[in-house]
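B., you asked whether I could sanity-check this one before it goes into the benchmark set. Here's the sequence:
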Amino acid sequence: MTASNPLRQPLPSSGAPSAGATSAGPPSLVHDAPPDQAHLDAASDTFRMLSDPTRLHVLWLLARSEADVSTLTGATGASRTSISQHLAKLRLGGMVDTRRDGRRIVYRIRDGHLARLVREGFNHADHRLTGEPPHS
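And here's what the prediction gave me:
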């Protein structure tokens, strides 16, 4: 794809589309344009958020299904306070969304790119830990 492709959706650094973003057509799975500084910064911010093991575990769980704080606390073994703080950072970073279900707040991962990135990170870790040869 080229930068002039109307399906190319640049990574927004916030909730608003970045310069050059279009709303024509469905979102693209591939963004082949060379990264500018804004894209490098946004990607670095994403990886920085993934660098905490508890946040990464929470995102892995949310990539599988929606969950509330109690479910995430039980699944990770972290304290409720810790999970709540990590979820607040993830919300502020635009990585998770919420919805109300009665008295509960249910969290979900915001987009497929992030879910695939988290899964691929664990796939890569599995190869490193098991000695399975890498894919080409």
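One thing to flag: The helical segments are 37-50, 53-64, 69-76, 80-92, 112-130. Otherwise nothing jumped out at me.
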